[in-house]
Amino acid sequence: MTGATDRVALVTGASSGIGAATARLLATRGLRVVVNYLHSAEAAAEVVAGIEAAGGQAMAVQADVREATAVASMVEQVRAAWGGIDVLVHNALTPYAVKPFQEMTWEELGGKLDDEMRAAFAVTKAVLPAMAETGRGRIVYLGTGLSRRPREGMIALGTAKAALTQFARYLAQELGPRGITVNVVEPGPVDDTRMAADVFDAEHKRRQVAATPLGRLAHPDDVAQAVAFYAGEDNAFMTGTTAAVNGGMSMY
Q1: Residue 101, CA distances (Å) to 98, 106, 154 in order
Q2: Largest CB tally within 10 Å, which of 69, 153, 199, 226?
Q3: Where are the domains of the chain?
């Protein structure tokens, strides 16, 4: 542990992958971490146990972040135990269709857009009152490089995450005067995630690695490092920005 703090971080979708790596890293930096999950109670409990074994503080809380009432209940549970949430890392990935536009229904494209923005809206609304009251806060959304660099079959995810990134910019402008920063981390392909397992075959992964100047795909810990920077108190003057964590696969 690097030092005690009373800061509380909520990490959505934190039972595995980037979310779990972020929860563990924030805990090593002294934050008390809320490990949100939807279905994976056992995996979330393992993340909490690992954090506690290393001397940190964590709790697992189940909530579907698309449901405002479930999110409000989660935030109230955290408030009762630890007080207000100082850091929101919104990482939860809602389901999406992988197919060309010509084969896609509006329910698939519009449904992903609705899920993405509904979840971001709900969790942000729920944590803002405490942040505004204290005059400090850090909000970090997980986007994707697909929102800038299209790839076949990924129109639903890429379009939804592009909307999330623009949402973050508007919030950064509005919330800056209240001492709240809002930023986005956009990973490229990440090894060892659900998306990688569902979408990448071995040949596709080989091509992605070949297109990456640093010679490999990102690991969840690589992404967590960027998130933790944005979440830190030292990040006092960066807001409305996007960090690309892709090993140089695309540069902007």
Answers
A1: 9, 10, 9
A2: 226
A3: 8-192+220-244
